[in-house]
Request: fold
Amino acid sequence: MVQRERWSDLTIADLLTLQSGLSQKAAPTTGNRRWSAFRSFWRYLKRVERAELADLPDAVTGRTPKRLPKALPTDQTRQLAECAETDPKGVRDRLIVELLYGAGLRVSELVGLRTEHYRRDEAVLEVHGKGGKVRFVPLPRETTAFLEGYLASARPHLAKSPSAFLLLGDRGQPLSRQGVFNRIRKWSVEAGIERKASPHTLRHSYAVDLLKGGADLRAVQELLGHASIATTQIYTQLDLSEVRSRYAKAHPRK
Reply:
């Protein structure tokens, strides 16, 4: 470990040694977090204490590995959806799951939906995504059926006053992001899902299931509203077991 009497005695070599020590026996994210905290402290010493200090090295402690999306198996997605009750609030909660998984929406896109964004004749949602970009997402028949049922029976009970928003809270207010998150967590516990689901889990599941079913990568990019194809390509990194399973079914030599 580097030891000096004053901070100003530390050299570039000392700082590199310190940086290496902070990341030793730690995950890249932990090492980066430690180094970031030290950089903030170093800037404080320079700005407030007016200390004459060496410049910090530009190198980072480690590259954070890109994590694969966490998707739910199809049967668990169905279990999650079927946990909702049959009263108006339960119908709304079932629709939340159906839209997140059936249309691959971000939670911000979900809570921003207005009734006019549902194009009934085409069974399509007009989705307003990041940067104000608009995309049109076709809905599966099952999702469309639940949406129609919600509009016909559940939403009129939830609406305490006129509202343009599609999904309403228990008191008739627009549903919040945190409200959606809490409901998904609640139903994942009810369904006995070992890994607690989140709205983004269902979006991941939508993408992975489309690609496993043979959907074109560019088409999935458009449906998800990704600006870059590189973001969508993350979903193609399937488990080796999945690759082997496909091979066993498709290759004549088995």
